[in-house]
Amino acid sequence: MMMNVNLKKLTFLAIILSLNFNVFAQSKNVQLPANWFNLDLLENGYFGISTEKAYRELLKDKKPKQNVVVAVIDGGVDTAHPDLKGVLWTNKKEIPGNGIDDDGNGYIDDIHGWNFIGSKKGNLEFDNLELVRLLRIYTPKYQSTTNLTPLDSSQKEEFKLYKKMVGDFGKKYEDASNTFSVLIAINKVLDTVAKISKKEIPTMDDVDRYKADDETEEQVKTIIRKGSREDGSFEKFYKSIKEGYKQYDAMLKYNLNPKYDMRAELVGDDYSNAYQKDYGNNDVKGPDAFHGTHVSGIIGADRTNSLGIMGVANHVSIMAIRVVPTGDERDKDVANGIRYAVDNGAKVINMSFGKSYKWDKKAVDSAVKYAELKGVLLVHAAGNDNQNNDLEENFPNKFFDSKEADAYKEANKKPVKPDFTPPKPMAQNNGMGMRPPYNRSTFVKPIPIDSAKFNLPHANNWIEVGASAYKDDDNLKASFSNYGKYTVDVFAPGFLINSTIPDNKYEEADGTSMASPVVAGLAALILSYYPDLKPAQVREIIMKSVSKVAHKVKYKNERGENTRVPFSEICVSGGIVNAYNALKLAETYK
């Protein structure tokens, strides 16, 4: 699933409307160069990846040895954008619009890629979270079950998962409902002010002049002022609220609605057959191409024209593969997207999406192994929940479902907690109102991590990417970015990244979704000049050549504590990717 991380700051506070801004969140009240992610820290003062320095000093007299196809598996790409038209992958074996599968690859008129979540009837725009799809299966089986119900070992595991999912669903639904209530209140004031001022979009002055009807509306005005300062302008805040309303409306209507399921009608595949591939249509833009278009621009927006931005790679072709709706992507579509990319010549695949639950990971694992066999590198966004991926599940990932993984899980199985535990009697006091003896268990203990599980079978053609900000200080880790000492390989710029969006426009966006294509673009850049490198070598080069972060960074850890740690504690490489260093290192590989 893809979500605008700006909206994560919106929360419901019991009775009084307010906004909960992360204490360590980077301020957006800043004007950054449009191309800051390609700049150099020492030369320009922004912690970019030194792309421009590399072009100027290392590649000036070199010619690329190959054009590298990068597949963008996402929610859709606007192929008509002027900064992308010249860098699109085109299937030259296919005759556009003739309704015939000219190249015999199983896909009719796949000129710039393929859409696996559509059909002749149209496109699937919305879908459930994977959590909801799983609950649809497990609820009839376990809603009346207790820990006293006789179950075999397989059923016990399913029941354990079911209880976790019920809890997660309840929290997500409550959070979404509460946040939507906040958005409704803010929208109401904004729309009322617009109507009174007779403007399509009001100004902050209009909001200030508006006489609130009650105390709640007065507090909403305070929220608007605070949000505008945090976002850098009233216009940005206004847009984020409108986008937030749209996203949370969709979350409640579709993502978290067990009764909603349009897959059969709009896609029409045999969903029970994970290896079926002959479905979909050739509409790679789809109903909402914002995210995929933004990602594509970061990778390879035309560097030879005077428009908009410059992507990381200069000799690249973007292959558009649509598998991500507004909601969670399905494993079958992800697996088919990977296979399509590999079979049609992609050397790098960017995957800026993720979810907390799996449906058919073995189908995805099989596709990842296929990509590794065929020499294709996969680059994946770590996620935007400020979550420790060493402890929390995040799919897809490089770790295979395997016999070794099953054995490890069995050996480290935690006992099932009973539904009810009687409270222990409190210790007797001395009759003078003294508190019970000090209980050390009330203090939160560090969560242990067994690093052995990260040596289980996994893909060697996979890079997991966290998001960094522009300033080399203790706020360098983007406040929203997931992290992991063992699971997140590198960090890359993912804060206020300006890139292409539909309808010939450009816009800033945040997320590991933006950091991942920075790394995918770097991988393509390396391969365009050093075509003999294998995926594992490209991965190694990117990780070994990072700009090491010498100071501590701050973030809120998995225990909810504000903390500062060395950068090597939140990712494997301990640094930010660097194009200049990577190309120099690639030159030494034979």
UniProtKB/TrEMBL annotation:
Single GO BP term: proteolysis
Keywords linked to the UniProt accession: Hydrolase, Protease, Serine protease, Signal
Family: Belongs to the peptidase S8 family.
GO molecular function ontology, one term from the record: serine-type endopeptidase activity
Chain spans, region Disordered: 411-430
Active site: D74, H291, S513
Cited PROSITE patterns: SUBTILASE, SUBTILASE_HIS, SUBTILASE_SER
Gene3D superfamilies: Peptidase S8/S53 domain (3.40.50.200)
Organism superkingdom: Bacteria
Signal peptide positions on this chain: 1-25
Protein name: Subtilase family protein
Database matches in CDD domains: Peptidases_S8_Subtilisin_Novo-like
